[in-house]
Amino acid sequence: MERHIEKFIRYLEIEKNYSKHTILNYHLDLIDFKKFIGDGQPQSVTYLILRRYLATLKEKNFSSRTLLRHICCLRSFFRFLTREGLIKNNPAASLMSPKLDKHLPQFMTEDEVRLLIDQAVSEDERGLRDRAILETFYSTGMRISELVGLNKDDVDFISNIVKVRGKGKKERLAPIGDTALKVLRKYLAKRNDRDNAVFTSCRRRRITDRAVRNIVKKYLDAASIKHGVSPHTLRHSFATHLLNRGADLRSVQELLGHANLSTTQIYTHLTTDRIKVVYDKAHPRA
Fold this sequence. Notes:
Layout: H1 2-14, H2 20-37, H3 47-59, H4 64-83, H5 110-117, H6 125-140, H7 144-148, E1 155-156, E2 161-165, E3 171-175, H8 178-191, H9 209-222, H10 231-244, H11 249-256, H12 261-264, H13 266-282
Antiparallel strand pairs: 1-2, 2-3
Helix pairs in contact: 1-2, 6-8, 6-10, 10-13
């Protein structure tokens, strides 16, 4: 079983170009499944065994989203084994996906974003870095992993364009505003080193996801913005504010790097609520 798992993980890395985060989760999920079946081999796994395994996960009060990830992992794994001729039948083909609750993403108002960014006022290297992180987040709407992975040669200061490496190692070009570039240029000039990473720690190493989360939390606390806001909330705010100001959904999809338009459509629920409020206030017969 272990040999099959390793082969599958290499397939995800080399052929499917899955993100490191997804590969790590799939690997851990399969190790957990291996513990469940003990000495059993993939050929001996049946649909009923898979159902029993999922039942044990449900007993642990896993969320529907976590259960869905386990199911997707098992489907991909056994589909791979079937295609490679390692098993004859795919026992995971009939697994049903749990129904996911639709949660509207949290977002900040434009005034809250302004207040957050204005907390980073220090002109030393660390203060400039923190403000550049906040400005770049909100200006581009990129994911935290994409921001952490930025290199200096990814930023075109003349064309106001940033090359972003997204999920599945897909690259896209994202516009970046003058305000963000101005702070970014100031920060890099203050740093004045040859490290190719755009954002680094005090030890001149590429900054980590956790460090960025701590930075954002620090300024959220300083601004007294408490309602479940995280670095990803800046991405949600970016998309919501664009739609509120008239951007079309297809353009926002491209800017966010979403593979499917359906992923972007969740933001229309937020803008629809705002439109209703405007309608109720403005229409004489509302």
